[in-house]
Amino acid sequence: MQIAFSRRGVLAGGIALGLIGCSKASDAQAQAGIDAKALALIAAARGQIGVTRAYDPGYSRIAYPGGDVPRERGVCTDVVIRAYRDAFGIDLQRAVHEDMAAHFAAYPRHWGLQRPDRNIDHRRVPNLERFWQRAGADLPLPGTPAGWRPGDLFSSLVGGRLPHTGIVSDKVSPRGVPLVIHNIGRGTQEEEISAVGRTIGRYRWRV
Fold first, then answer.
1. Is residue 198 part of a domain?
2. Structural domain containing residue 61
3. Is residue 8 part of a domain?
4. Under a CB-based contact definition with an 8 Å cutoff, are residues 94 and 65 in contact?
5. Is residue 3 part of a domain?
6. Contact (CB, 8 A) for 204 and 149
7. For residue 203, what are the contacts with CB-CB under 8 A and spacing of at least 6?
8. Which residue among 76, 88, 106, 128 is least crowded, i.e. fewest CB within 10 A of its CB?
9. What is the residue-level pLDDT of the chain in tens, covering all 207 positions?
10. 167, β-bridge pairs
11. Which H, E and C letters describe 97-111, residue by residue?
């Protein structure tokens, strides 16, 4: 699948951090200039591979803050949410809810809601996109696949209409295409960015 690089109008953290600098691979990454926080975020995402094995978009009532559905299932946003929690103790559920509660009119109204819903708002890609934009994390899309940086967050449209997100890996495929860690329907996987559809957003937040 070809990627269209068009610009849009708009487990635990200790384990992940402990991996930094503890291997030859990590030393090589550090020498290559990959930020330690980016590596921690990637390690936390990669730790979900083989754990989250199913894609389940169903609505669930979850605890707040720090709520989650069972880790063996989830959606694309859960990969990102869990990675930030595991790597840094940052709770996107709380961050998004608090911003939406204070600035509800600034967020998409695709779902006909009249008020924030802390069970689901942070698990919707358009809400994360708007949150990252409001946080100043929005970056230009790269002109080539090589322009992606490890630790970048992407958003895309699968099949031209379904919003999707994930984390850019520190690895590339044998043909030099950046890998991403995401859940596009088969649980958490690490595969070429060409699998994500048309990329429409790039963000870099807290790394």
1. yes
2. 13-203
3. no
4. yes
5. no
6. yes
7. 129, 132, 133, 137, 138, 139, 152, 153, 154, 155
8. 106
9. 333 433 333 333 333 323 223 344 445 555 467 999 999 999 999 999 999 999 999 999 999 999 999 999 999 999 999 999 999 999 999 999 999 999 999 999 998 889 999 999 999 999 999 999 999 999 999 999 999 999 999 999 999 999 999 999 999 999 999 999 999 999 999 999 999 999 999 999 999
10. 153, 181
11. HHHHHHCHHHCCCCC
Alpha helices in 3-35 (DSSP H): 13-18, 24-31
Return the closest-CA partner of residue 5 out of 119, 127, 132, 142: 142
Q: 165 in helix, strand or coil?
A: strand
What's the number of domains the chain is made of?
Answer: 1
> What is the model's pLDDT at position 31?
43
DSSP helix/strand/coil, 65: coil
Determine the 3-state secondary structure of 75 from DSSP.
coil
Within its chain, how far is the Cα of 6 from the centroid? 20
pTM score, two decimals?
A: 0.85
Contacts 24+ apart (CB under 8 A), 157-161: 157/197, 157/198, 157/200, 158/184, 158/196, 158/197, 159/197, 160/197, 160/198
